[in-house]
């Protein structure tokens, strides 16, 4: 991969009609935040070829609201991404064989992966390590398969509204 985009689902309702976490829909704030995050990620250079999405309702709804910014991508819904850990997230992205991958999933796995990749001590990477809130997106890039990942952009609803 040359680019890895991590996108946490937007703000979700506390409960679902079924009582299951998997079925929680986006809250009104999440529905408002997601399109702007899609625009900000596209503006920051996110160019996924393939998007891997957790099948949970809140991640599917988030993807539906950002998808218009990435019209020519292949989308796969992977059961393994639901509440996945960092290794599962990275293995899924690498298994695509694509140069540019976006993963739409959940914390704590996304935050832990973003923190692991953002290992330098600059202000932007410190912000990623400190917090990866709902609808946060991080764009990482690298020159080739042997070079380190570098954080290129970090967007949150708060950063795009400031």
Q: Key features?
A:
19% strand, alpha/beta, Rossmann fold, 162 residues
Q: Would you kindly provide a written description of the structure presented here, covering whatever features stand out?
A:
With 162 residues, the chain is of the alpha/beta class. The chain has a single domain, classed as Rossmann fold. The protein contains six helices and six strands. A six-stranded mixed sheet has the order 3-2-4-1-5-6, sandwiched between helices. α1 packs across α2. The longest helix is centred in the first third of the chain and has 16 residues. It is globular and about 45 Å long. The mean pLDDT is 95.
Highest CATH level, the class: Alpha Beta
Overall mean pLDDT score? 95
Number of domains: 1
* Integer-rounded radius of gyration: 14 Å
Instruction: Find the CATH topology.
Output: Rossmann fold
Morphology? globular
Question: What about the largest sheet?
Answer: 6 strands, mixed
Relevant CATH superfamily: Phosphoglycerate mutase-like
Number of helices: 6
Distance between the termini: 32 Å
Widest sheet, order of strands: 3-2-4-1-5-6
Oligomer: single chain
- Total strands: the figure is 6
Indicate the structural class: alpha/beta
Strand content: 15-25%
The parts where pLDDT drops under 50 for at least 5 residues are: none
Residue share in helix: 25-40%
CATH architecture term: 3-Layer(aba) Sandwich
Taken in chain order, the helices and strands follow as EHEHEHEHHEEH
